[in-house]
C-alpha cells in the first residue's frame, strides 16, 4: 500500500477487481508523479516545493468543483467524484512528499510514524473507501498495515536512502544501539547494526500483525489481495532476518518462489 516505494502498490494486481483498477491507477499515477517531483531529477529544493504546491492548487480546484488544468488531475477528479473519495488523503500524500524534500533525518520513532501517517496510510484509506469498507475499525487496521509496509521499505533500503542523503532510522535509537551515520555511509554491518535492525524488524512485524485481522474481515478477491500484501511484508521481514540484517550487501526482494509461499499463507488466512 505504500507509495514511497512501489513494490506493494496493487495497481496491476490480477487480484484487484476490474471495476477498481481505473480509480486505483488514477491514485497511483497521482502519487507517483508527486513522489517523482520530490525525488527525481536535478531540481532545486525550492523548485520541487513549487511543483508540489502546484499539485495542491489542482486539488483545491477539485475541492471547489472546478475543472483541473492538467489531464492527470482531470482524470483523478473524475474518479474522486465517481467514487466519493475523500480529498484529505491526497493532501496528506503531498505533505509527506514535501517533507521528503526538506527533512532528511528523524529524531525518534514518533516522528517517523507521523511521516508514515501521511506517506503510506492515505493509500490504505483510499482503498478502503473504494472497497466500501472504510469503517473506523478497518481504518485502524489499515493504518497499522500501511505504516508497517512503509517501515519495511525503509529497512530494505537503508543503503539506497543514504545514497540520496536520507536516514529513516530514528537517530535516538541509532545512538542507543551505538550506530553512527558514518557507519551507514561505509556500509558496516557489525553487531551493533544487526541489533538495531533486529529491533526495527521485530517492531515492524508486530505492527503488521496488529493490522492483519483486516485480511479476514475483507471478503473475496479484495480480502485475498489484502492477505497477499500482508504476507509480502512479512516475507520481506523474514528475508531481512535470514540475511542477518546486512541490508548493505543482501537487499531482500520478492522472487517467484516467494509469491507461491505467500499465496499458500494467504488462503486459508493464518499468520
Instruction: Give me the strand/helix succession.
Output: HHHHHHHHHHHHHH
Specify the overall morphology: globular
Whole-angstrom Rg? 19 Å
**Roughly how many Å apart are the termini?**
19 Å
Total of DSSP H or I helical runs spanning 4+ residues: 14
The number of strands is 0
Strand content: under 5%
Low-confidence regions: 1-12
Structural class per helix/strand content?
mainly alpha
Sheet of most strands? none
Mean pLDDT: 90
* Helical fraction: 55-70%
Quaternary class: single chain
Please describe what this structure looks like.
This protein has 271 residues and is mainly α. It is 70% helix and 0% strand. The protein has 14 helices and no strands. It starts with 17 loop residues before the first helix and ends in a 5-residue tail after the last helix. Residues 1-12 have low confidence and may be disordered.
Task: Give a quick rundown of the structure.
The chain is mainly alpha-helical and 271 residues long. The protein has helices at 18-39, 45-63, 71-83, 88-102, 109-119, 121-131, 136-156, 158-163, 171-176, 181-186, 191-211, 214-217, 220-242, 256-266. Helices cover 70% and strands 0% of the residues.
Amino acid at each position: 500500500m505504500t507509495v514511497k516505494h512501489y513494490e506493494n502498490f496493487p495497481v496491476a494486481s490480477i487480484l484487484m477487481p476490474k471495476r477498481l483498477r481505473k480509480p486505483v491507477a488514477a491514485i497511483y499515477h497521482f502519487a507517483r508523479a508527486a513522489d517523482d517531483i520530490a525525488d527525481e531529477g536535478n531540481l532545486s529544493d525550492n523548485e520541487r516545493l513549487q511543483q508540489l504546491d502546484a499539485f495542491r492548487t489542482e486539488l483545491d480546484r477539485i475541492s471547489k468543483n472546478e475543472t483541473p488544468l492538467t489531464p492527470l488531475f482531470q482524470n483523478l477528479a473524475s474518479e474522486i467524484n465517481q467514487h466519493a473519495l475523500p480529498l484529505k488523503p491526497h493532501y496528506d500524500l503531498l505533505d509527506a512528499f514535501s517533507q521528503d524534500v526538506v527533512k532528511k533525518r528523524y529524531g525518534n520513532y514518533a516522528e517517523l510514524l507521523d511521516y508514515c501517517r501521511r506517506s503510506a496510510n492515505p493509500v490504505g484509506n483510499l482503498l478502503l473507501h473504494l472497497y466500501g469498507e472504510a469503517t473506523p475499525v478497518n481504518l485502524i487496521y489499515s493504518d497499522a498495515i500501511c505504516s508497517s509496509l512503509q517501515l519495511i521499505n525503509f529497512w530494505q533500503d537503508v543503503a539506497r536512502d543514504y545514497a540520496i542523503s536520507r536516514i529513516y532510522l530514528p537517530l535516538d535509537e541509532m545512538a542507543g544501539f551505538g550506530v553512527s551515520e558514518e557507519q551507514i555511509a561505509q556500509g558496516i554491518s557489525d553487531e551493533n547494526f544487526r541489533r538495531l535492525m533486529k529491533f526495527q524488524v521485530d517492531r515492524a512485524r508486530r505492527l503488521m500483525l496488529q493490522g492483519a485481522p483486516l485480511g479476514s474481515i475483507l471478503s473475496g478477491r479484495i480480502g485475498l489481495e489484502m492477505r497477499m500484501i500482508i504476507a509480502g511484508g512479512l516475507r520481506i521481514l523474514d528475508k531481512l532476518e535470514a540475511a542477518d540484517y546486512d541490508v548493505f550487501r543482501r537487499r531482500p526482494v520478492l522472487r517467484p518462489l516467494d509469491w507461491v509461499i505467500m499465496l499458500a499463507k494467504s488462503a486459508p488466512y493464518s499468520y
